[in-house]
Amino acid sequence: MTTPRAFDFSNRSIVVTGGTKGIGFEIATAFLAAGADVMVCGRTVPESLPSFDGRSATFRATDVRDPADAAGLIDDALAAHGRLDVLVNNAGGSPDADAATVSPRFVEKIVALNLLAPFNVSQAANAVMQTQPEGGSIVNIGSVSAHDPQPGTAAYSAAKAGLLVLTKALALEWAPKVRINHITTGLIRTDSAAAVYGDDGGAAVVRTLPIGRMAVPQDIAGACLFLSSEWASYVNGADLAVHGGGEYPARYLATHP
Fold first, then answer.
1. Residue range 81-104: average pLDDT?
2. Where are the beta strands (DSSP E) in 75-202?
3. Catalytic residue positions?
């Protein structure tokens, strides 16, 4: 067995959904830094694109909830780069909503974005990767909410739980050519999430985390690089927890101020 080089994605083609801001932006930047050609997508044209050392990602306006548009994203990446090696299903999210009063339309949109959209893009990507001698890798960005939901996240948590099981199911069906893995993300410090963590800048929240800090997007990007690399060639259907050890139980915090 030869030792693989650490995170060398030269001459590799990567697609990152939701790659124009936050976590997706950093994932795309990390792959660019590793030498890859990267295409990102979003609903609207961003002010800036991920870049590294003079190389930038390309952008395609895409609604990944639409199966035809999702397939078009993969087609365009293939046309631009001649191959498709890695898909990172990062697009997702949800505002909090009271399950007792939330509208059916809201629930449909959240499930479509967080569960159906990753399936749409993965199905199109798999069709390409299965024809390539080296196959490909798909990484689904999940959430700790799939394991431990909190109030206000019923639709989102259910969709993310579905994404985790979808990962495991597709890993069985599409191997050995295509490996599919899942990242369970915890609390991540991003600009868009800052208000969620309180007026103290998240200091009180950090006290609940064993590792002593919130994640930053680069933590998730590093996990994506690993799962997509030769170092993870035997990792398939896995759920990689990138959450700093989770959170201390409430009963522990209550008795250990």
1. 96
2. 86-89, 136-143, 178-185
3. 156
